[in-house]
């Protein structure tokens, strides 16, 4: 176990150390993919993340998100790609990887942009992918409302 | 076979030995001899089990199967010639030369890595402990600020505004006795100044203790503030209030304070023409999004510098209430602040009541 980033610390480290290797085209790919994710789904994923974790776990998850964000920011600077969607995407992905299976289907929401460039890391170990049918009618309604405002 | 393998261990950077299928060392490199404290010639013929006493080190059989070909990585405890022990990671790779089965075993001493990990772990524990202290301090600061605001608002209401109202009343009485028009004009200006000051003080009281929130009407309170900001600065606004029910007083106050903190930054730094404030019901809580079209900033420049207590407080208020916060910007793209707070947590008791086992 990695004391800093929780039980999936090794995967978080792999993600963080992989960020500087991304090319400018990959950064653009992640940035575009992040903008495709429904803001409501993302908000719900983060809400679930903070609701289903203890204070200690939350600390580790936020630490993972924060370090990944910093690394992404530095990479964006180096590649002259200054769209904050990129570091937000990496921060989301690191949080999800650190949280692992406990956020259920929301894992995919937060790692979808990462999956475009690091598919093995974005896959949640030990979980069967979910289908659209797993989303409730209420989820879809709120998503629609927030998408309008995005 | 021995002649073919004689120089093989020397090409490996790690401590490496070659053993036959009985587990006897055929060859050891200088790093292995140094690691275990033997003369490397003396290691020939030793049983590998003597180097890792009492531990499961399975060697490839004389007829290796598919599992042997994959090799194995083990974390074991090595034993030196002086009987001292060390943690090691051991890789066993089967080889077959001229129908003879052997194994190349490389050994890496983990002592330094474990020490480093221990130091890192301690460092992280200290950081976490300090972070908890910092959070406790911030929680105290947030509560103290709220209490202080209420006290100041009460003092202004009970003292300064009463005195100014009394002064205004006496000026009106005095004005009735004055016959000199020039003096009456001066008195009128004095009364105007007092009335204006009273109005400013009443606005200050509202900012300190927003009475509109007491009924949970967050939307109208924010609209009033945005309207006031628009008349002061010319910044236009869009308020999209999609909350289906009124927020509890504590949560409404937390949201109101955070939005005002964000809007204060918009006024001071953003050079924005427009700001959009959205309130949504999301996942048993409230999602607030504030987006301006200002100059934005480079987080790499700003975030490492001290003096951004406002941004820190926005994040901490949300997190202490069991929520989350995102503040993002880049040059030329404005700034977006999003925060979510759960419905079920009182802002005066942040962090309580939302912990669930993962």
Q: How does this model look, in words?
A:
Chain A is an all-alpha fold. In chain A, 69% of the residues lie in helices and 0% in strands. Chain A has one domain (9-149). Chain B folds into 3 domains: 2-109, Beta-Lactamase (2-Layer Sandwich); 111-209; 213-358, Heat Shock Protein 90 (2-Layer Sandwich). Chain B is built from 10 helices and 10 strands. In chain B, α5 runs antiparallel to α6 (181-208) and α5 (111-177) crosses α10. Chain B is rod-shaped, with a radius of gyration of 37 Å. Chain B starts with a helix and ends in a 16-residue tail after the last strand. Chain A binds chain B through residues 3-4, 39-40, 43-44, 46-57, 59, 73-74, 77, 82-84, 87-88, 99, 102, 142, 145-146, 149, and chain B through 120-121, 124-125, 128, 131, 240, 242, 278, 280-285, 287, 289, 298-300, 319, 322-324, 326, 328-331, 333, 336, 338, 340, 342, 351, 354-358.
């Amino acid at each position: 176990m990695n004391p800093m980033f929780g039980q999936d610390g090794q995967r978080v480290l792999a993600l963080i150390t992989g960020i500087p290797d991304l090319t400018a085209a990959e950064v653009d790919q992640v940035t575009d993919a992040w903008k495709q994710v429904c803001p409501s789904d993302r908000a719900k994923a983060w809400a679930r993340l903070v609701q289903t974790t203890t204070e200690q776990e939350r600390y580790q998850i936020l630490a993972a998100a924060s370090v990944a964000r910093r690394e992404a920011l530095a990479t964006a600077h180096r590649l002259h790609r200054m769209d904050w969607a990129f570091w937000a995407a990496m921060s989301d992905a690191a949080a999800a990887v650190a949280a692992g299976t406990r956020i259920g289907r929301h894992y995919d929401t937060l790692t979808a942009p990462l999956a475009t460039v690091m598919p093995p890391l974005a896959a949640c170990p030990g979980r069967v992918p979910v289908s659209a049918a797993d989303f409730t009618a209420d989820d879809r309604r709120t998503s629609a409302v927030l998408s309008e405002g995005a | 076979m021995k002649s073919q393998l004689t120089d093989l261990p020397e090409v490996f950077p790690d401590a490496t030995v070659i053993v036959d299928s009985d587990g006897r060392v055929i060859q050891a490199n200088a790093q292995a001899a140094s690691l275990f404290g033997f003369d490397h010639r003396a290691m020939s013929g030793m049983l590998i089990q003597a180097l890792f006493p009492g531990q499961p080190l399975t060697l490839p059989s004389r007829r290796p199967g598919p599992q042997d070909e994959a090799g194995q990585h083990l974390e074991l405890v090595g034993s030196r010639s002086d009987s001292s022990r060390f943690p090691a990671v051991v890789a066993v790779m089967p080889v077959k030369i001229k129908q003879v089965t052997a194994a190349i075993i490389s050994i890496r001493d983990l002592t330094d890595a474990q020490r480093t990990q221990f130091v890192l772990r301690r460092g992280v524990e200290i950081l976490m402990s300090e972070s908890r202290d910092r959070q406790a301090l911030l929680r105290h600061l947030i509560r103290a600020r709220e209490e202080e605001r209420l006290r100041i608002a009460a003092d202004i209401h009970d003292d300064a505004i009463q005195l100014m109202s009394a002064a205004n009343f006496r000026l009106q009485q005095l004005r009735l006795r004055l016959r000199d028009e020039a003096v009456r004009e001066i008195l009128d200006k004095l009364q105007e100044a007092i009335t204006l000051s009273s109005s400013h003080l009443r606005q200050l009281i509202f900012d300190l203790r927003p009475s509109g929130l007491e009924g949970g009407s967050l939307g109208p309170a924010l609209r009033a503030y945005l309207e006031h900001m628009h008349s002061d600065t010319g910044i236009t606004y869009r308020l999209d209030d999609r909350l289906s029910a009124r927020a509890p007083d504590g949560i409404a106050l937390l949201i109101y304070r955070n939005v005002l903190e964000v809007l204060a930054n918009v006024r001071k730094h953003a050079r924005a023409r427009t700001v959009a404030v959205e309130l949504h019901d999301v996942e048993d809580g409230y999602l607030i999004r504030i987006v301006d079209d200002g100059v934005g900033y480079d987080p790499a420049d700003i975030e490492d510098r001290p003096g951004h207590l406002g941004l820190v407080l926005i994040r901490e208020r949300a997190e202490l209430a069991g929520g989350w916060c995102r503040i993002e910007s880049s040059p030329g793209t404005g700034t977006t602040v999003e925060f979510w707070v759960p419905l079920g947590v009182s802002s005066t008791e942040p962090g309580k009541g939302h912990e669930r086992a993962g």
